[in-house]
Amino acid sequence: MSPADAVATPRSLRVTDPALEPIAAKVLEGRRLSLEEGAVLYATPDVHAVCRLADLVRRRMHGRLAYYNVNRHVNYSNVCALSCSFCAFHRKRGQDGAYEMNVEEVRDAAVEAQNAGATELHVVGGLHPWLPFEHYTTMLSTIRDAAPRLHLKAFTAVEIVHLQRISKRGKDGYEGIKAVLRDLRDAGLGSLPGGGAEVFDDRAHDEAWKGKIRGDQWLDVHRAAHELGLNSNATMLYGHVEGRPERLVHMDLLRRQQDRTLATWAEAQGIARAAEGEVVLGGPDESYPGHRLPMPGQDGLKTGYFQTIIPLPFFPDASGLEALPGPTGLENLRTIAIARLMLDNIPHVKAFWIMQTLGMAQLMLDAGADDLDGTVVWYDITHLGGASTHQETTVTDLRRAAIEAGCEPVERDTLYRRVERDGADWRIVPSDS
Ligand code: V47
Q1: Residue 88 sits in which domain range?
Q2: Other CB atoms within 10 Å distance of the CB of residue 30
Q3: pLDDT tens for each residue of 80-99
């Protein structure tokens, strides 16, 4: 029985705001929502109805499963050539608080993670102005050789473009990016994290992260990764200098790219698509004669794809935008729900507990999110409520949060395959069992 079979789908949803009625009808039918409808979801006072709509889609896709993983983050250096004003992480070399981990230190962190039973290492850092490209391939291959069980999810699209520049690979930007990704894949890269996307809007870009790649380049890097068979995630940093309309455009750009990526797979599954080539994964069961959700390698699926959307609420403390208030809890809840509804072709929605808090992430399991991320352990990019770099939660706490929310907690690996565990020992459960 698929998780979706376990849950009866209502034929209608009660909404108090009449503006939501046509949207609820479309969601029930599994039709794509327009940007204008996204704006209605943002404007309605009935935020809880938006959450219920998102929950309906979430239940169709995942039933009441709540995913988490046993992972570790390694932020190998905060030295960065950029000075994005929203970012409190970056330092210049020699500046107070600047640090660099050498390859051996990263390797030791990886071995420790593997010994503790982690399945994934999430490795990202600043754009270091002097380290050569070979440093990064060596870092990956050293980790892979010392801790071969870890899936290496490493380097945001921003870092990949930086690596392409310093490697001087490829005359044409896109081919150079692909060449760099191939080298990194050969050195052990397993997938790309979703960072560095911020919000795909040139005005916000120029105001708060000028000098960093723009949205089109970010999307190109992920397209290249997908073409090479690597999966990736996508983030959206919101609640700073952007507005709600820009968030919706960001989501639309992601789903258009994902439509193109999934076109061949969707055809093979018999998923009906609208004239515009839309691939909607959250409709009623009868619309999916084959698989509802893509899985790597499934039915010869050779490309990678966006697995997860991760809305990240802006956290102003210690950043250059400290005077801004940052988004509220309800805005975070609404944005998670809208991400579920608008990004109808991205299988998973992650409520990253480090930035959302575990309590809010728990509520989000009823508002479209199906993934809490993992145990994390060390995290240096944001320090919510004055937290130190040691930001760890336990599997017990993640599972308790999910169970209390009425969900079945499921440990996953980076590619969302089920993991069965006995202490630090783990194995992937074959998908047909
Ligand atoms: O790209 C930086 C964001 C991102 C701030 O792929 C900030 O599984 C809030 O991408 N307030 C890095 N956010 C984190 C990230 C991520 C996290 C967890 C899982 C995955 C995944 C990806 O953090 C950056 C940037 O957008 N960020 N500064 C800030 N002050």
Answers
A1: 66-416
A2: 20
A3: 999 999 999 999 999 999 99
